[in-house]
Amino acid sequence: MAGATPEVTRTDDVAAIRELAVACGLEDSEDDAEEVVAAWGARAGTGLVGAIVLERDDGLDVVNWLAVDAEFRGRGLAGRLYAELEREARRRGVRRLWVTARAPEFFARQGFVPLATGPESPQLLRACAACRQYGRTCRPQALHKDSGESGASPGGSS
Ligand SMILES: CC(C)(COP(=O)(O)OP(=O)(O)OC[C@H]1O[C@@H](n2cnc3c(N)ncnc32)[C@H](O)[C@@H]1OP(=O)(O)O)[C@@H](O)C(=O)NCCC(=O)NCCS
C-alpha cells in the first residue's frame, strides 16, 4: 500500500478523518464549536492515509486535522492536501487562514507566520490548556496566512 500514490479528494467522512488524526497522535478535543466547511482525504487502495479539514471557528477560518499516515510521510502528501484546502479557501474569498499547529515548521513552509500576540491567540489555543499532550509531546503554535502571502509553493497540483 505504501508504494501507491494516494488520491486526494473531497470527503464528508469527518469521523474517519478524526480517527486517522488520533492514530497519527493528534488529540481529539471535546470542543466541537468548530463548523466543518470542507474536508479532504487521501486514499491509497481503500484506506484513508491522509486528511485535512477547513473549519469555521467563531469567525476564524481554521485549518484542522492535518494528518498523514506514517508510511506515507515525507513525499509531499500533506502539501497536496493543504494545496486543496487553500484553493477552496481562496475560492470562498477567505482572506486569512489560521492554524494551531503541532507541526509549525510544515505551516511555515506553506507561508504561514507565527502569531506573536493578539486576541485570536487565546481562541486558537483554548483547547490546548486542558490537553494532556500540551507542553509534553505537543508545543503548539498559532500561525496565520493572508491570501496575499505566497510562501513556499504548496506541494502537488491535484
Ligand atoms: C505533519 C505531517 C502532516 C506532514 O506530512 P508529510 O506528508 O510528511 O509532509 P510533506 O511531505 O507534505 O512535507 C512538506 C514540507 O514540510 C516539511 N515538514 C513536514 N512535516 C514536518 C515537521 N513535522 N517538521 C518540520 N518540517 C516538516 C517537510 O520537510 C517538507 O519540506 P520540503 O518541502 O522542504 O521537503 C505528518 O508528519 C503527520 O501527520 N504528523 C503527525 C500529525 C501532526 O503532527 N499533524 C500536524 C498537525 S498541525
List the defining traits of the structure above.
158 residues, alpha+beta, Aminopeptidase, 7-stranded mixed β-sheet, 4 helices, 30% strand, binds coenzyme A
What does this structure look like?
The structure is a single chain. It is built from four helices and seven strands; from the N terminus they run βαβββαβαβαβ. The radius of gyration is 15 Å and the shape is globular. The chain has a single domain (7-146), classed as 3-Layer(aba) Sandwich (Aminopeptidase), CATH 3.40.630. With 158 residues, it is α+β, with helices and mostly antiparallel strands. A seven-stranded mixed beta sheet has the order 1-2-3-4-5-7-6, sandwiched between helices. It binds coenzyme A. Coenzyme A binds next to strand 4, helix 2 and helix 3.
List the helices and strands and how they pair.
Blueprint: E1 7-10, H1 14-23, E2 35-44, E3 47-57, E4 60-68, H2 77-91, E5 96-101, H3 104-109, E6 113-114, H4 120-125, E7 141-146
Parallel strand pairs: 4-5
Antiparallel strand pairs: 1-2, 2-3, 3-4, 5-7, 6-7
Bound molecules: coenzyme A.
Return residue spans where pLDDT drops below 50 for at least 5 consecutive residues.
Answer: none
- Alpha-beta classification: alpha+beta
The residue fraction in helices comes out at: 10-25%
The radius of gyration over CA amounts to 15 Å
Structure described in brief:
This protein is α+β, with helices and mostly antiparallel strands.
